[in-house]
Specification:
Elements (H helix, E strand, L loop, with lengths): L12 E12 L2 E12 L3 E5 L6 H8 L7 E6 L2 E2 L5 H6 L2 E4 L11 H5 L14 H14 L15 H14 L4 E5 L7 H16 L3 E5 L3 H7 L2 E6 L2 E7 L5 H9 L17 E11 L7 E11 L3 E5 L6 H9 L7 E6 L2 E2 L5 H6 L2 E4 L3 H5 L6 H6 L7 E2 L2 E2 L1 H14 L16 H14 L4 E5 L7 H16 L3 E5 L3 H7 L2 E6 L2 E7 L5 H9 L2
Parallel strand pairs: 3-8, 3-9, 6-7, 7-8, 13-20, 13-21, 16-19, 19-20
Antiparallel strand pairs: 1-2, 1-4, 4-5, 9-10, 11-12, 11-14, 14-15, 17-18, 21-22
The structure holds adenosine-5'-triphosphate and magnesium ion.
Length: about 500
């Protein structure tokens, strides 16, 4: 490794990365990337799934050491041996994949590894809880500091991760898709926090697949493609189309969803569905929800965080506690699934928002994760045939555009967006009649999203029905034939495609 050329240390510069290279088995994740970040700016990093964004941020925050290249923080050379070193240099990171210890409280997670102590050296739970409560309050998050982290929904977990990073009071904050699991309202709250941090002079690096967010917040934008630095530009001097063009290196085909799909027979009827919530003042997670889904139809389920969207899908899929009342009918027949396996056998599939908890199997390779629910087709004479498995997963890997060194690469080595595509592929492989999509494109890049929308549209034309939630309203509006709105567990409105607008949906979702 050669020393960085002697340059006048610029007081304006927070970060300097020069010639950063990082290899993993079978992939060059970063290839000679150089980047300068100015003090106090919000610098957005854009790129397709697998472009190397997270890897670059992990190098900056001490998770990985680069194979080559140098890093300078506030004018000083930095050679981080771990995240603690980076924290000491003032760098905090909010990771793309949530890292909370499920069995610990929210406060214990926020202060993990740097517990507050009383003068007697005892762990000071009170101080940590008070500080956590204060941080969560600035995020306008209503979770209590003593709540078990594992019991939180993804969106709340993400807010806790953010609180954790804020508690470090870092001068450089790295956010790897912080809003991917947040609703619009929560993102707006986070944005207020970001603005406060910027007033204090915090330098922020942010990764996001939401172009609109990038263009609202960033001062400058860097685009990575296939591990290489493509361009760094002032936000004011560019446009979303130009950025996505640099990201993918080609034009993205715009898919039209305005060609109506024929609506077929009813596939799913939900009647008066109520899911109790013992111990909660409200008493229920869902109350008296009724809706229909027909073949060829995409029905969007809108609502704020905690409105019951995930619970609705999970109850249909058989992962909620079996305490619900009401009726769920598939093709006219009443069902009550007690395990996803039963739902799967009946032609129902679900892509969840939480790929860590319900989706990925770290010990299986890419092919294993995709073929998981269709294994019967790859088994001959009691043995799992490797070639059959490969043939089985080739289609879904291609259709969803998974970027992997090969079908037998480790699933944990895939980028976040590519892991999500594997889960979508897994469920498509089961050829479901009914597909439940719970925020399916979380973390997926713009190009891949467009392709996925096309795929969903094609499958609906062949008679599939889709129940969809999304943290992005524009996505719901693009895809859905109808949108139903949940507010605090109740269905408050239903709009056909032509009448659904962001404004009307938000009104119904907030009960105003
Ligand atoms: N721990 C690892 N082991 C093996 N390969 C890895 C590992 N981490 C990342 N990679 C590979 O490095 C490349 C870049 O991945 P990275 O996670 O940085 O992408 P990304 O730009 O953050 O994508 P996304 O938008 O999907 O999050 C990918 O090809 C990925 O498979
Ligand atoms: Mg990433």
């Amino acid at each position: 490794m050669t020393a960085a050329p002697a340059e006048p240390a610029s007081a304006e510069r927070a970060i300097l990365m020069r010639g950063i290279t990082k290899r993993f088995p079978g992939v060059v994740a970063l290839d000679d990337v150089s980047l300068e970040v100015r003090k106090g700016e919000l610098h957005a990093i854009c790129g397709e799934n697998g472009a190397g964004k997270s890897t670059l941020m992990k190098i900056l925050s001490g998770v990985y050491r680069p194979d080559a290249g140098v890093l300078e923080i506030h004018g000083r050379p930095a050679d981080f041996g771990g995240t603690r070193d980076a924290e000491r240099a003032g760098v905090a990171i909010i990771h793309q994949e949530l890292n909370l210890v499920e069995d610990l409280s929210v406060a214990a997670n926020v202060f993990l590894g740097r517990e507050r102590r009383t003068p007697l050296g005892l762990v000071d739970d009170r101080a940590m809880e008070a500080e956590t409560a204060r941080l969560l309050e600035t995020l306008e998050c209503r979770v209590g500091p003593r709540t078990r982290a594992g019991s939180l929904r993804v969106g709340d977990q993400q807010l806790v991760e953010i609180a954790k990073a804020l508690s470090l009071d870092a001068s450089i904050l790295v956010m790897d898709e912080p809003t991917s699991a947040l609703t619009e309202a929560e993102s707006a709250r986070l944005e207020r926090t970001i603005n406060r941090l910027r007033e204090r002079g915090t330098t922020i690096l942010s990764i996001s697949h939401k172009m609109e967010e990038v263009f609202r917040l960033a001062d400058r934008i860097t685009v990575l493609r296939d591990g290489r630095h493509v361009r760094t530009v002032d936000r004011a001097a560019t446009a979303p189309k130009e950025i996505t063009g640099w990201m993918v290196g080609r034009e993205i085909a715009e898919h039209s969803f305005h060609e109506p799909r024929p609506r077929g027979e009813p596939l799913l009827e939900v009647r008066h569905l109520t899911l109790p919530w013992p111990g909660h003042p409200r008493g229920y997670r869902l109350s008296d929800v009724s809706l229909d889904l027909h073949a060829g139809e995409i029905v969007g389920v809108a609502g704020l965080m905690g409105a019951g969207r995930t619970e609705l899908l999970e109850t249909i899929f058989g992962v909620s506690p079996p305490t619900w009342t009401g009726e769920i009918r598939l093709a006219g027949r009443g069902v009550r699934f007690e395990h996803p396996r039963e739902a799967c056998a009946a032609g129902v599939a679900m892509v969840t928002e939480d790929r860590k908890r319900l989706g990925l199997f770290p010990d299986l390779d890419v092919a294993g994760n995709v073929s998981l629910c269709s294994l019967r087709e790859a088994v001959t004479g009691g043995f799992l045939s490797r070639s059959r498995e490969e043939a089985l997963v080739a289609g879904p890997l291609r259709d969803t555009g998974v970027k992997t060194p090969g079908p037998h690469a480790s699933i944990m080595g895939l980028s976040g967006g590519n892991q999500q595509k594997c889960i979508i592929g897994r469920w498509l492989l089961t050829r479901p009649r009914i597909l439940l999509l719970d925020d399916p494109t979380r973390g997926i890049d713009v190009g891949a999203k467009a392709e996925l929308y096309g795929l969903i549209d094609r499958l609906c034309r062949q008679g599939m029905g889709v129940l969809l939630t999304s943290s992005e309203l524009p996505e719901l509006l693009t895809l859905s034939d109808r949108i139903v709105v949940l507010a605090e567990g109740r269905l408050t409105a239903e709009f056909p495609r032509g009448r659904a607008t962001e404004h009307r949906i938000l009104e119904a979702a907030t009960g105003s």
